[in-house]
Amino acid sequence: MAIKNVDAELKKKIRRCMETLPLTINTHFGDPFQPDQWENTLDKIRYLKAQNYQGEIEVSTKWIISNEQINELYAINPDIWIICGITGINEVKNVTLDERFDNYLRICKKFKKTILNVRPLIPGINDSMEVLTPIIEVAAKGRKLLKHGGYLNPQSFENKKTKYDGLKQEIHALCEKLGVNDGPRCSCLVTDVTGKVNSTFEESPPVNLDVLEALGYNFEYNDGYVTLAGYEGSSTVTKGDVSFARLIVLSSRVVNNWNDPHVYIQMKGPDSQIVVCTSSWLHWAREVPCMVDCFYCHVRPENPIIQSFEAGDTGCSPIDLYHYLFED
Ligand code: SF4
Fold first, then answer.
1. CA 245 to centroid of ligand 1, rounded, Å
2. Distance from the CA of 28 to the center of ligand 1, in angstroms?
3. 86: Cβ–Cβ under 8 A, 6 or more apart, which residues?
4. pLDDT for 136-167, tens place per residue?
5. Is the dihedral of CA 184, 186, 192, 196 positive or negative?
6. What is the pLDDT of residue 1?
7. How far is CA 176 from its chain centroid?
């Protein structure tokens, strides 16, 4: 990979963009808090801290952790987002719903950026207010941030989550009554709290077009909208490229014209690793088998629909990506 030659001012701007990207750690192919991933998750968070990383950092988990672990994590970075899964589905035998509630509330006591995540809502299993009411009531005792989402059938190639519009309104009504924010997307909850730009929904014109170009993207800019045309020599545009471009230009005004449904971006990491970007987060993950082992999991490497996600270790610190592309 040749180092890209750009002037010092632009380099500064690119670095600023890269060091402020929202980043998710060890979120697919292994729970970030399961025993054989815990140290790796801490290492990554420590590493980012040492680099003075400025972006929001997230971990999504369904693992039960001890108070000692909560304290250990808090000592490294008290400011990370913990998206704590409570679905009302008995995913793990011997872990009761009450234990999950207790786990969430113990995490909330320390981490102010904790979101209760009820996802997936599986038709006929947990998509009823009977199941959801006690969960929402617990969210109201915690940090009052709730995320929910439909079910993606791991056997289906349609890659579409179930819709639950009527239930969504019921969830929202109860949340409103209890003072819980149930924003439509994780990114909305994050930006509601931080006041940062939510590039998934931001309607103001794109900025940082010079950064997008320096990163290697070919695009057209017309009437306030970016249309990606490819990356370096290639005319491929992945779904991940569109998401990444939105994060760089701090606007939703990047046309959704991907011609490849994969969520990786076309830029590779310093070790030639794939870099994944979904709508709200750039990913940095080590692949280990997930010990939570949900029957509904759709991100198992052996699953055929995983072709729209990527197997293997992915990503790196975005600051390292910057160095690899522009400094080293
Ligand atoms: S088994 Fe799949 S759905 Fe369940 S926690 Fe692990 S990665 Fe997430």
1. 28
2. 7
3. 97, 100, 101, 104, 116, 117, 118, 135, 138
4. 999 999 999 999 988 877 666 566 788 888 99
5. negative
6. 58
7. 25
Residue segments in the chain with a per-residue pLDDT below the cut of 70: 1-3, 154-159, 300-311
Decide: helix, strand or coil at residue 23.
strand
Q: Is residue 265 part of a domain?
A: no
Q: Is the shortest distance between the CB of 59 and ligand 1 below 6 Å?
A: no
CATH number assigned to the domain comprising residue 154: 3.20.20.70
Query: What's at 294, amino acid-wise?
Result: C
Provide the 3-class DSSP secondary structure of residue 146: strand
- 297: Cβ below 6 Å to ligand 1? yes
Residue 9: CA atoms inside 13 Å, Cβ hemisphere, count?
2
- 61 forms beta bridges with 84
Asked whether residue 76 is assigned to any structural domain, the reply reads: yes
C-alpha distances (whole Å) from 267 to each of 219, 234, 236, 244, 321 are 15, 11, 12, 10, 9
- Structure confidence by residue, pLDDT tens digits, 212-243: 999 999 999 999 999 999 999 899 999 999 99
Q: Where in the chain does DSSP place strands (E)? A: 23-25, 57-61, 81-85, 114-118, 146-148, 217-222, 225-231, 264-265, 275-276, 282-284
Residue 263: the pLDDT is 87
Domain for residue 109, yes or no? yes
What is the domain count for the chain?
1
Q: Rounded distance, CA 10 to CA 291, Å? A: 44
Per-residue pLDDT, 183: 77
Greatest alpha-carbon span in the chain = 59
pLDDT at 2: 54
Q: Which atom of ligand 1 is nearest to the CA of 91?
A: 4
Task: Give me the domain span that covers residue 152.
Answer: 57-194
Ligand 1 centroid–CA 63 distance in Å is 10
117 lines ligand 1 (CB under 6 A): no
